[in-house]
Structures are given as C-alpha cells and as structure tokens.
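From the pipeline queue, job 12 of 40. The input is one protein chain; the requested action is below.

Action: predict structure.
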Amino acid sequence: MKLLKPSWVSHNGKPIFSVDIHPDGTKFATGGQGEDSGKVMIWNMAPVLREEDEKNENIPKMLCQMDNHLACVNCVRWSNNGLCLASGGDDKLVMVWKRAALIGPSTVFGSSSKLANVEQWRCVTILRNHTGDVMDVAWSPHDVWLASCSVDNTIVIWNARKFPEMITCLRGHTGLVKGLTWDPVGKYIASQADDHSLKVWRTVDWQMEANITKPFSEETQQIASSQ
C-alpha cells in the first residue's frame, strides 16, 4: 500500500470531513469547513497519481470550489454514473451538483485572481426536510434514489429522478443516524446510529427488515468495564 497525502489538498487550513473519488477515477471531491460557511471542492486526480503532473504548473490541481452550504459540510458522494455530486451539511441541507458548460476559467469568489475554477459545477437542487445536521448521503444502485441521514434520527429517501420529490422518511432510530449504505442490487438500505443499532430496511415497502443491536451492546459493556 502506498500512502499519499498531497499538501495542496486543503480547505485553507480548515477541517476536511469527507472525500469521495469520482467513478472514472479522474477527480475527487472533498467536503468540510470553509472560512465562514461549508465548502465543497473538486480536485484533479492526475497530480496525485503522477509526480510529473504535480510539478507541471500547466496541469490544474483544484478544479472547482463551491461555497453554497451555510455551515460545515459533513459528506460528499458521487452518483454511480458520475454526473452528480451530493453533499450534506450542518445547515440541514442536501445539495445536488451537476457540471455546467464553462467558457474559460472563472475566478473563485473572494479569492485572488490566481485561483480559478477549471470546471463549473452548479447546485441544481436543494433538498430540505431534515431538522438537524445531515451526517451522510448515499446513492442507490442505478441512481434511482438518494438517501440522507441526520442528527434528527431519520433517514430520508429522495426520488433521484424527480428531485426534490421525497419518497419516504424512515423512522425507528432513537439516536442520531451516522451512516448509510445500499446493497449492490438496491433491495435494501442499512443505517447505523448513535443508539447502538444497525437497521436494515426493505426498499419494496420501506419497512424494517432487521434490527441488529447485540454486537454493539456488548461492545458498549466492554468499554464501560475497561473504564
């Protein structure tokens, strides 16, 4: 394994909380804290993979910077087809981004003229339903649905083909929901939460298929006994 940590991948010294590589491997997105808002950035993968590209000043490192989120960004996830990027943050919002046509580089707002967007990514949809910080987002196989989870203990399923239409809101966790993942076929979605449970939900009727707590309750007891 080779560990790479490019010094130029930075949010101006602010924390980065999420990273996701584009399906075609040519770029990656980061999400985190900005100067006075949330920040989403898209980076070129070539300078990461090849030292000669990193040293070549004609090859851009930063492709686009987006400061639309009103608070810290906790997660960024590319759609499976690579056409969209979803981000969720402490502003209780989920934003969906798509690449727009660009006529020449555009200067990043509030920066020196040297910092320019090589690609233009625009927020095409803002999804509003959560009443707390959005912790994670996940695209279903074939990008039919987009799921988001939050500090408000819920998981929202969005119709990714008819944004901002909401399919359903999954309730059952008694603690903040931290993470989501779909099965490869799209028949189930699993959620993990601060209530020491992992729940599996069926997509055919959006009902709970399984509630797994035993491994996490034993782990909690071990931590308590060690203290």
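Job complete. The chain has three helices and 18 strands.
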